[in-house]
Design a protein that fits this description.
Layout lengths: L4 H8 L8 H11 L5 H11 L12 E6 L5 H18 L6 E6 L3 H15 L8 E4 L3 E4 L4 E6 L12 E5 L13 H8 L9 E6 L7 H9 L7 E6 L1 H4 L5 H10 L1 H7 L8 E3 L3 H7 L15 E6 L9 E9 L3 E10 L5 H14 L4 E4 L4 H10 L3 E4 L4 H13 L3 E2 L4 H8 L1 E5 L4 E5 L6 H14 L47
Parallel strand pairs: 1-7, 1-8, 2-5, 2-6, 6-7, 10-13, 12-15, 13-14
Antiparallel strand pairs: 3-4, 4-5, 9-16, 10-11, 11-12, 16-17
Helix pairs in contact: 2-3, 4-5, 9-10, 14-16, 15-16
Length: about 500
C-alpha cells in the first residue's frame, strides 16, 4: 500500500482528485513531496511566496479556504492516512487528533468523514473499534475527535493534530477558543515531532487565524506554511451558478465563504470584558419593587422552528442606569397562545399593562395579548438598532445585566457589519439572539426615561437552573426587597 498521501487518498480512500487538486497540492507541500510545475505555480499563488522544495516539509500549516473546498473531508482523509501508515510501519499506540467546533454537529461532521474513510475496503481490515469519538486501529493506533476545549487534549502525546474550522472555535458560552486550543495542543507534539495543521474558512479580521495570516502569508522565511485560496481554486468543479447565487444572496458573506477573505467590515459588537462588568454575579432575577415602574419587551415566535419566544423586563435607576430585572425564555416546540399566557403572567408580577415587541405576526400577537387584558405595541426600532443603542450605555457602565448564561452567550456572539449608509448587527450563522433581542429592547425603553418610566416592553424566554437563568420557571417573589438579593436560591418552578 502506498505511503504518499496523494496516492493514498486517490487509490485507497477513493478521493475525487479532480475536485481536490488544491487540497492534494497543499498536503504534498506540507510533507515535502516535490511539486510538478502546475502544483508549484498553484502553491506560489496560494502562499504568496516563491515555491522552494523543502524535503522535510513543514511542522505547522494553515489552510484558509472557502466553503465546499473539502476541508472536513481532507482533515478526515489525512487522519486516516496517518493512522494506517503507522500500522503498516509497525508503530504502536500512536495518537492522531482531529479537533472540531464545540458542538455536536461539528464533531459529527468530522467524525462522519473519518468513519467513512475507515469503512473503505483497504482500510477496514485495520480497524479494531469505532465509538462516538474514537476510531482505533491495529496496534493501538487511534484517531480521536475532540471538541475545541483546551482541557480535552491534556495528558496526550500526539503524532499529528488537524484543526477543523479554527476561526470558528467558540466555547459553549460564546467565548473564542482558537488561541487557547492552539496553545494547549502544541505541547502534545513535543515528543513526537508531529505536525499541527489548521483548516478553516475565515471570519472577522481578528483572532488567531487573522494573526497567523498577517505573520506568515507571503513570508518566504516563515517555517509555517500558510495557504490561502478561494473555493473555486480548491474545487474547480464547483458550480458557477451556485457560487453566483451565494454572491447575489449575501455579497459580504461570500467574501469569506467563497473568496476566503477576512470580513474587514465585521467586528464583534460587545467587548466580553465590558459585558462581564455589567453582570451582577449570581442575580438571575430581581423581584418587583413597590414604587418602581417597569418596561417589558417580547420577541415572539411560532413555536415550530428553532427560535424561542422570549421576554424581558427592566427598570430605570438614577443616575441614568438601565437595569434588567427578569427574562423568560420559552423554547420550541410550544403553542404561541401558551407562550403568551406565560409572558402575561410575568408582566402582571411587575405591574406591566403593556408590552412592546417586534413585528412578528403583529395582528395575532396583539390580539392574543388583548385577550389577556394587556396592550401590545410594535417596536419602532428593529433589533439591529436596539443593539447599537445599548452598546454605548454598556461601555459607559450604565447597564446592569442578569447572570443569565444564554443571554451573555448571545450578546458575546453579536456582530456589527458596517455598511455604506448604516450599520447592521446580527448573530453568527447558525447562532441565535432571541434572548438578547428582548433584553436589549427592554433596556432601550427604560434608557429613554429620565424619570420613572411608564411604558412597558417584553420578550419571551424561559429560565433554566444552570447558571440561575429563568426557563419556563420563575420565582414567586414578594414586592419589595433589594434588587440584588434575588439569586438562584429563590427560584421555584411554576
Amino acid at each position: 500500500m502506498t505511503t504518499q498521501f496523494r496516492a493514498f487518498a486517490r487509490a485507497v480512500l477513493g478521493l475525487d482528485v479532480a475536485t481536490r487538486t488544491g487540497m492534494l497540492a497543499f498536503f504534498d507541500a506540507l510533507d515535502g513531496v516535490p511539486l510538478d510545475a502546475a502544483d508549484a505555480s498553484l502553491c506560489e499563488a496560494c502562499t504568496g511566496r516563491p515555491y522552494v522544495h523543502r524535503p522535510d516539509g513543514y511542522r505547522q500549516a494553515v489552510l484558509q479556504v472557502g466553503r465546499q473546498a473539502g476541508k472536513s473531508e481532507g482533515a478526515a482523509a489525512r487522519l486516516v492516512y496517518r493512522a494506517v501508515t503507522a500500522v503498516l510501519a509497525g508503530r504502536r499506540n500512536r495518537v492522531f487528533v482531529g479537533v472540531a467546533q464545540d458542538h455536536r454537529a461539528g464533531m459529527r461532521a468530522l467524525l462522519g468523514h473519518v468513519k467513512r474513510c475507515a469503512e473503505r475496503p483497504h482500510v477496514a481490515p485495520y480497524v479494531v473499534r469505532v465509538t462516538s469519538d474514537v476510531v482505533e486501529f491495529t496496534g493501538g493506533n487511534t484517531i480521536l475527535v475532540l471538541p475545541c476545549r483546551p482541557a480535552a487534549s491534556r495528558g496526550l502525546e500526539v503524532d499529528e493534530v488537524v484543526l477543523d474550522e479554527l476561526a470558528h472555535f467558540l466555547s459553549t458560552d460564546g467565548y473564542p477558543r482558537d488561541r487557547e486550543v492552539w496553545r494547549a495542543l502544541l505541547p502534545t507534539l513535543g515528543m513526537t515531532g508531529g505536525k499541527l495543521i489548521a483548516l478553516s474558512s475565515p471570519h472577522q479580521a481578528s483572532g488567531l487565524l487573522y494573526e497567523l495570516h498577517q505573520t506568515h502569508y507571503g513570508n518566504a522565511a516563515s517555517d509555517l506554511l500558510f495557504w490561502k485560496a478561494s473555493s473555486v481554486t480548491m474545487n474547480p468543479r464547483l458550480s458557477a451558478s451556485f457560487v453566483q447565487h451565494l454572491r447575489d444572496v449575501d455579497p459580504e458573506s461570500a467574501e469569506a465563504e467563497i473568496d476566503a477573505e477576512f470580513l474587514q467590515r465585521t467586528t464583534t459588537l460587545f467587548d466580553p470584558g465590558v459585558l462581564e462588568a455589567c453582570v451582577d454575579p449570581g442575580v438571575t432575577q430581581r423581584p418587583p419593587m413597590a414604587g418602581v415602574d417597569y418596561a417589558a419587551f417580547c420577541d415572539a415566535a411560532s413555536g415550530t422552528g428553532k427560535d424561542a419566544f422570549t421576554a424581558a423586563i427592566a427598570h430605570h435607576e438614577p443616575p441614568g442606569v438601565s437595569v434588567l430585572d427578569a427574562l423568560l425564555v420559552v423554547r420550541p416546540p410550544f403553542s404561541p397562545a401558551t407562550a403568551i399566557e406565560l409572558v402575561c403572567g410575568l408582566l402582571r408580577e411587575y405591574r406591566c399593562t403593556a408590552v412592546t415587541g417586534d413585528r412578528y405576526a403583529p395582528g395575532f400577537v396583539a390580539e392574543a395579548f388583548a385577550r389577556q387584558g394587556l396592550m401590545y405595541r410594535p417596536s419602532d426600532r428593529d433589533r439591529s438598532a436596539l443593539y447599537v443603542e445599548v452598546l454605548p450605555r454598556a461601555n459607559a457602565g450604565q447597564v446592569r445585566l442578569l447572570d443569565h448564561p444564554q443571554l451573555l452567550k448571545e450578546l458575546r456572539g453579536l456582530e456589527r457589519h458596517r455598511g455604506a449608509t448604516k450599520d447592521r448587527v446580527d448573530h453568527r450563522r447558525g447562532a441565535h439572539d432571541d434572548v438578547a433581542n428582548s433584553a436589549c429592547g427592554a433596556l432601550v425603553l427604560v434608557g429613554h426615561a429620565p424619570q420613572p418610566f411608564q411604558g412597558h416592553i417584553l420578550r419571551l424566554g424561559r429560565a433554566h437552573r444552570h447558571g440561575g437563568a429563568l426557563d419556563q420557571s420563575r420565582s414567586r417573589a414578594p414586592v419589595g426587597g433589594s434588587p440584588r438579593s434575588f439569586t438562584t436560591a429563590n427560584l421555584r418552578d411554576f
